[in-house]
Specification:
Layout lengths: L14 E4 L2 E6 L2 E6 L2 E7 L2 E8 L4 H11 L9 E3 L7 E4 L12 E3 L10 H8 L9 E2 H6 L7 H6 L3 E6 L5 E7 L2 H14 L9 E4 L5 H10 L3 E4 L5 H10 L2 E7 L2 E4 L6 E2 L4
Parallel strand pairs: 4-7, 5-8, 9-16, 12-13, 13-14
Antiparallel strand pairs: 1-2, 2-3, 4-5, 6-7, 10-11, 10-12, 14-15
Helix pairs in contact: 1-5, 5-6, 6-7
Length: 268
């Protein structure tokens, strides 16, 4: 991405893009805002999906997205298109299954659910095996260990981190879309041979939605921790898949909604 490119924004907006953030002049001062741009994912040159994301780690995002949708069962080959079109990546097929007529368009605030999504997860994500057992205090402290330099700069990005059971941070990615941040982590984990993710822990910086539980379950993560609240469907899916779901993890405390046997120690 080059300095000065700001999509369709008018010149009067005075936005200067600098990687994952842009500098914006307003009220006589210069501020930093998160960059949001569309990414088109193609398979063998054919358009499959468009997602609104923060540029960076686009190949990992595409791989993680396709894995979470059950369209690939391993890290695919992902690269630029032949015409080097901006904001487009091309995946080498074939896919593991036909996506059919389902059209994928995801915004920065909501990922893909779609009709029949719960049934599809039940097929592509078998129930998780037992373990690990992790202390409640450690799990509650993991969000504070997320490295979020772009959030600190802009206040506008979500983060997903992958941790070992002892609390060691393995991977972390930021994006304007919470689902994109998780896709980027899972895509990188695929490249590093870490999938299935068990016994590692996924941690997100916001609320716990159905789509995040779906992605975590498909990737084989036994524990998902979030700073915010879960939704009813997220709790139902986590219970069905045998995933430990922890919310409101902040200031050393958290709630455990499903599969409490993986959490050592009671609430403070």
């Amino acid at each position: 991405m080059t300095e000065g490119r700001a999509g369709a924004l008018p010149e009067s907006a005075r936005v200067r893009v600098r990687g994952m953030h842009a500098e914006l002049e307003h009220d006589g001062v210069t501020d930093a805002v998160a960059v949001e741009e569309p990414l088109e994912i193609r398979v063998d040159g054919e358009p499959l999906a468009v997602t609104m994301r923060t540029p960076g780690d686009d190949e990992d995002l595409a791989a993680g997205f396709l894995f979470g949708e059950g369209l690939v069962d391993r890290r695919p080959e992902v690269g630029l298109t032949e015409d080097l079109a901006a904001n487009v990546v091309d995946v080498s097929g074939p896919l593991a299954r036909d996506p059919g007529r389902r059209q994928f368009y995801t915004t920065s605030s909501c990922g893909v659910c779609g009709k029949g999504a719960l049934e599809e997860v039940a097929v592509s994500a078998p129930p998780l095996p037992p373990g690990p057992v992790v202390g409640r205090a450690l799990l509650a402290a993991l969000p504070d260990r997320l490295a979020q330099p772009e959030f600190e700069r802009t206040g506008g990005l979500h983060a997903t981190g992958l941790f070992d059971p002892d609390g060691t941070l393995r991977l972390v990615r930021e994006d304007v879309g919470r689902h994109n941040a998780m896709d980027k982590v899972i895509g990188r984990a695929l490249a590093e041979g870490l999938v299935p993710l068990h016994p590692r822990i996924l941690v997100v910086s916001g609320r716990l939605s159905f789509e995040l539980v779906q992605k975590a379950a498909v990737a084989g993560a036994p524990i998902l921790v979030g700073v915010g609240a879960p939704t009813s469907l997220a709790v139902a899916l986590a219970a069905d898949r045998g995933l430990t779901l922890c919310g409101f993890a902040r200031r050393g405390r958290m709630n455990v909604y499903t599969r409490e046997e993986r959490v050592a120690g009671g609430p403070a």
